[in-house]
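ok so i was messing around last nite and threw this chain in just to see what happens. nothing serious, just curious
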Amino acid sequence: MIEDEKIIGFLDRLSHGPLVFFKRKADEQWTVLAISENVNDLCGYARQQFLDGLHHREIIHPEDIQRIVQEMTFYTDVQRATQYRHQPYRIIHRDGS
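result:
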Protein backbone atom coordinates (compact mmCIF):
# COMPACT_ATOMS: atom_id res chain seq x y z
CA MET A 1 0.00 0.00 0.00
CA ILE A 2 2.88 2.38 0.73
CA GLU A 3 4.14 1.87 -2.82
CA ASP A 4 0.73 2.83 -4.23
CA GLU A 5 0.66 5.95 -2.02
CA LYS A 6 4.08 6.95 -3.38
CA ILE A 7 2.87 6.39 -6.93
CA ILE A 8 -0.28 8.45 -6.31
CA GLY A 9 1.81 11.32 -4.90
CA PHE A 10 4.14 11.22 -7.89
CA LEU A 11 1.24 11.08 -10.35
CA ASP A 12 -0.53 13.97 -8.66
CA ARG A 13 2.58 16.13 -9.05
CA LEU A 14 2.63 15.30 -12.77
CA SER A 15 -1.08 15.67 -13.33
CA HIS A 16 -1.42 19.39 -13.80
CA GLY A 17 -1.93 19.04 -17.56
CA PRO A 18 -4.29 17.18 -19.85
CA LEU A 19 -3.11 13.72 -18.76
CA VAL A 20 -4.59 11.14 -16.41
CA PHE A 21 -2.29 8.49 -15.00
CA PHE A 22 -3.54 4.99 -14.19
CA LYS A 23 -1.87 2.08 -12.44
CA ARG A 24 -3.94 -0.98 -13.13
CA LYS A 25 -3.91 -4.73 -12.85
CA ALA A 26 -3.34 -6.77 -15.97
CA ASP A 27 -6.64 -8.51 -15.37
CA GLU A 28 -9.56 -8.80 -17.77
CA GLN A 29 -11.27 -5.60 -16.60
CA TRP A 30 -8.04 -3.63 -15.96
CA THR A 31 -8.87 -3.01 -12.32
CA VAL A 32 -7.52 0.37 -11.22
CA LEU A 33 -5.01 0.29 -8.36
CA ALA A 34 -4.06 3.98 -8.42
CA ILE A 35 -5.13 6.99 -10.45
CA SER A 36 -4.20 10.66 -10.56
CA GLU A 37 -6.56 13.09 -8.83
CA ASN A 38 -7.15 15.15 -11.98
CA VAL A 39 -9.33 12.38 -13.42
CA ASN A 40 -12.30 14.29 -12.01
CA ASP A 41 -11.35 17.56 -13.72
CA LEU A 42 -10.64 15.94 -17.09
CA CYS A 43 -13.11 13.06 -17.23
CA GLY A 44 -15.82 13.80 -14.66
CA TYR A 45 -15.11 10.71 -12.56
CA ALA A 46 -13.94 10.85 -8.95
CA ARG A 47 -10.79 8.88 -8.21
CA GLN A 48 -12.73 6.92 -5.60
CA GLN A 49 -15.17 5.64 -8.25
CA PHE A 50 -12.30 3.72 -9.85
CA LEU A 51 -10.98 2.49 -6.52
CA ASP A 52 -14.51 1.31 -5.68
CA GLY A 53 -14.84 -0.74 -8.86
CA LEU A 54 -15.26 1.41 -11.99
CA HIS A 55 -12.90 -0.27 -14.45
CA HIS A 56 -10.56 1.63 -16.73
CA ARG A 57 -11.66 -0.46 -19.68
CA GLU A 58 -15.27 0.74 -19.26
CA ILE A 59 -14.44 4.35 -20.14
CA ILE A 60 -12.18 3.92 -23.17
CA HIS A 61 -13.72 5.15 -26.41
CA PRO A 62 -15.10 2.22 -28.47
CA GLU A 63 -13.01 3.17 -31.50
CA ASP A 64 -9.81 2.95 -29.42
CA ILE A 65 -10.43 -0.13 -27.29
CA GLN A 66 -9.24 -2.74 -29.81
CA ARG A 67 -5.89 -0.97 -30.28
CA ILE A 68 -5.44 -0.62 -26.52
CA VAL A 69 -6.20 -4.31 -25.99
CA GLN A 70 -3.64 -5.19 -28.69
CA GLU A 71 -1.01 -2.96 -27.07
CA MET A 72 -1.68 -4.41 -23.64
CA THR A 73 -1.53 -7.98 -24.97
CA PHE A 74 1.71 -7.29 -26.81
CA TYR A 75 3.46 -5.69 -23.86
CA THR A 76 2.23 -8.07 -21.17
CA ASP A 77 2.05 -11.41 -23.01
CA VAL A 78 4.72 -11.05 -25.71
CA GLN A 79 7.23 -8.65 -24.18
CA ARG A 80 6.51 -9.67 -20.57
CA ALA A 81 6.86 -5.99 -19.68
CA THR A 82 5.79 -4.81 -16.24
CA GLN A 83 5.54 -1.19 -17.38
CA TYR A 84 4.72 0.39 -20.70
CA ARG A 85 3.10 3.47 -22.18
CA HIS A 86 0.13 3.44 -24.52
CA GLN A 87 -0.23 5.57 -27.56
CA PRO A 88 -2.75 8.34 -26.81
CA TYR A 89 -6.37 7.24 -26.67
CA ARG A 90 -9.73 8.76 -25.85
CA ILE A 91 -11.67 8.39 -22.63
CA ILE A 92 -15.42 8.87 -22.48
CA HIS A 93 -16.30 11.70 -20.11
CA ARG A 94 -18.83 10.92 -17.42
CA ASP A 95 -21.33 13.20 -19.22
CA GLY A 96 -21.05 10.96 -22.31
CA SER A 97 -18.92 13.28 -24.41
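not much to say yet. The chain has a mean pLDDT of 81.
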